[in-house]
Amino acid sequence: MNYSVGIDWLIIIVTFGITWGSQLFIKWAYNNKMKEESKVGMTGKEVARKILDENGLSNVKIEETPQELGDHYDPRNKTVTLSTDVYRKASLASISVAAHECGHAIQDKNGYFFLKFRNMIVPIVNFASSVGYVVIMIGLFAGLTRLLWFGVFLEVIILFFQLITLPVEFNASNRALRQLEKLNIVDSGENKSCCTVLTAAALTYVASVANSLLQILRLVLMARRND
């Protein structure tokens, strides 16, 4: 087997392993803690409402979505969206995820730098995501090395966005854990379980960064071979 082709396949296999492994871990942690009921018996929606109100965010709405793991905070319309299990269940996983999304709402209120910066570059990242691989494929098949390098540059922009996302997500989780304990929603033992759920979720973002680095490395090697 050609050495360069072997490297390409190695990168593909490692990328697949990281993606698969991180997804398995988060599903294990999420499903495991979804079976553990919180002692206070509050649903994700109730926990979210309590945290938001206690932090002067009564204007932030809470909505339900049927999309599994579709939980997110939208700073544009000040809405915390929770998946059905998180919204309706009183499990440790539910309250962990709900608290995490409220952590983003608190970041928004406090003007957290990395969140503001990430939101500011979203249009650029959307452009890079839309045309990046199209540019790369055209560059490869047409033998246009400069176009291929431009595609690599667009992928680097996406990687930069993912790197900015890491402190945003870790900070939101830290805020969530502090709020859960401060408001007596969980005790110290439950807090550890919540930490497990949030750590698993954070690792998916770390895995995305690792995968992007590997893909960029593969593209750089391909571009250099075309020079």
What are its keywords?
mainly alpha, three-stranded mixed beta sheet, 8 helices, 227 residues, elongated
Describe this structure in words.
With 227 residues, the chain is mainly alpha-helical. The protein has one domain (3-226). It has helices at residues 3-34, 44-54, 84-88, 92-110, 113-120, 122-142, 145-182, 188-226, and strands at 61-65, 72-74, 79-83. It has a 3-stranded mixed beta sheet. Helix 6 packs antiparallel against helix 7. The radius of gyration is 20 Å and the shape is elongated. The model has no long low-confidence stretch (mean pLDDT 89).
Write the SSE topology:
Elements: H1 3-34, H2 44-54, E1 61-65, E2 72-74, E3 79-83, H3 84-88, H4 92-110, H5 113-120, H6 122-142, H7 145-182, H8 188-226
Parallel strand pairs: 1-3
Antiparallel strand pairs: 2-3
Helix pairs in contact: 1-8, 2-4, 4-7, 4-8, 5-7, 6-7, 7-8
Low-confidence stretches: none
Strand composition percent = 5-15%
What number of domains? 1
Number of helices: 8
Cα end-to-end separation: 22 Å
Average pLDDT metric:
89
Give the C-alpha Rg.
20 Å
Provide the structure class.
mainly alpha
Order of helices and strands: HHEEEHHHHHH
Largest sheet: 3 strands, mixed
The coarse overall form would be elongated
Task: Kindly report the spatial arrangement of strands forming the biggest sheet.
Answer: 1-3-2
